[in-house]
Amino acid sequence: ALGLAMPAWAQSFPSKPIALIVPFAAGGPSDVIARLVGDHMGRTLGQQILVENVAGAGGTAGARRLASAEPDGHTLLIHHLALAAAPALYGNLTYDTRTAFAPVGLINTGPMVLAGKLALPPVDAKAFFPYAKLQAEKLTIAHAGIGSNAHLCAVLLGQALGVKFAQVAYRGTGPAMNDLVSGQVDLLCDQSTTAVPQVQGDKIRAYAVTSTERLDVLPNTPTARESGTDLEMTIWHGLYAPKGTPAPVLDKLNGALRAALKDPTVLERFKSAGTRTFPESDWTREAHAKRFNAEIAKWAASLQAAGVTPQNVN
Ligand code: MLT
Question: Is the CB of 82 under 6 A from ligand 1?
Answer without folding.
Answer: yes
